[in-house]
Amino acid sequence: MKTLWQNCHVASMANGAYSIIEDAAIVTEGAHIVWIGPRAEVPDQGDIKTVDLNGAWVTPGLIDCHTHTVFGGNRSGEFEQRLQGVSYAEIAAAGGGIASTVRATRAASEEDLFASAKRRLQQLLKDGVTTVEIKSGYGLDLASERKMLRVARQLGEQLPVTVRNTCLAAHALPPEYKDRADDYIAHICSDMLPALAAENLVDAVDAFCEYLAFSTEQVEQVFITAGQLGLPVKLHAEQLSSMHGSSLAARYQALSADHLEFMTEEDAIAMAASDTVAVLLPGAFYFLRETQLPPMDALRKHGVKIAIATDLNPGTSPGLSLRLMLNMACTLFRMTPEEALAGATIHAAQALGMADTHGSLEAGKVADFVAWNIERPADLAYWLGGDIEKRVVRHGVESTF
Ligand code: NIG
Ligand code: FE
Known about the structure:
Blueprint: E1 2-11, E2 20-29, E3 32-38, E4 49-60, E5 62-64, H1 76-83, H2 88-93, H3 98-107, H4 110-126, E6 129-135, H5 142-158, E7 162-170, H6 181-198, E8 204-207, H7 216-228, E9 234-237, H8 245-251, E10 256-259, H9 265-274, E11 277-280, H10 282-287, H11 296-301, E12 306-308, H12 322-333, H13 337-343, H14 346-351, E13 369-372, H15 379-382, E14 390-394, E15 397-398
Parallel strand pairs: 1-4, 5-6, 6-7, 7-8, 9-10, 10-11, 11-12
Antiparallel strand pairs: 1-2, 2-3, 4-13, 13-14, 14-15
Helix pairs in contact: 4-5, 6-7, 8-9, 12-13
Fe (iii) ion binds at residues 66, 68, 236, 311, 313.
């Protein structure tokens, strides 16, 4: 059965721009869009169900392409410490930071992790997200990484959202490998990644390339293993310092390099050549009170595609609204609302390797879209959070919340 969605305006985001269609109509069949264009030109569809969208603005379903939604515990105590002047790196060096979330995640049952992650994910969904990436990386041993990735898979099965799993075993050094980072990387490559991939728990592989995490040489070992397993790679790069991890990511045709405040123009040139998406995370920039801006001019000059994500995590970005991140991308990173929306739709889809099927509203693509009760597309980046009245359609079916 086909459905005709009409009485709406569309920002299709095809080619990374609003690509506005006024007084539009969308025809869906099953989970896909079969026609989209001006309402006056809809081809005769015969018997069809019709839905009146009351003049709403329709965009692709939002895609949050970088999150750490599954974790145990909470780090608001560290937030208070940082407000007293202790730095993120100092907290990490003292055994807090990622290590404290690792302790809480290892101690949590799969059921508890699912319940807390579900509550957070529901906040994102209420904000118009229809696809989300979820990373592991707070387990750091095979059983705990498996537990996190299984929870992420279950979230995708039980909630109206498409979940992409990323294995971030190379996020930090677990305590049992203290002073043995090379050994931990070898364990990831020989044991963890092959086992988790064989269980179909991994869609992409990520690492944290930073002086307080892993070197480019160590990350490269992880990338080589991912390639042997047929998995695409991504990288947390240049968040706190410049190590040219983003250039390394580009050499391995990474889907994305993420954070990037300290990247150089040479890194941008390398990323443009490999069409690696720059995923910017204004929530982490804001929450860490970072002052070094990502090099927006270089990214634009060399045509690097830019995505925006929440980086939802307990340490650096407890962000539960992707629309709020669009606003921060505009105010903090000087992006336009149109660039920001492309960053949470078509460019985010590319950062997950899904741009052929998701991220824009075009015939043949998956029918994931949101009909927003707003006056202009820029309103999505204008309001500071809040709950905008909306209807969310995923796989051609309206979601209820
Ligand atoms: O994306 N940069 C590394 N990983 C996370 C932070 C993790 C944490 O502090 O728990 C990030 O910012
Ligand atoms: Fe992150």
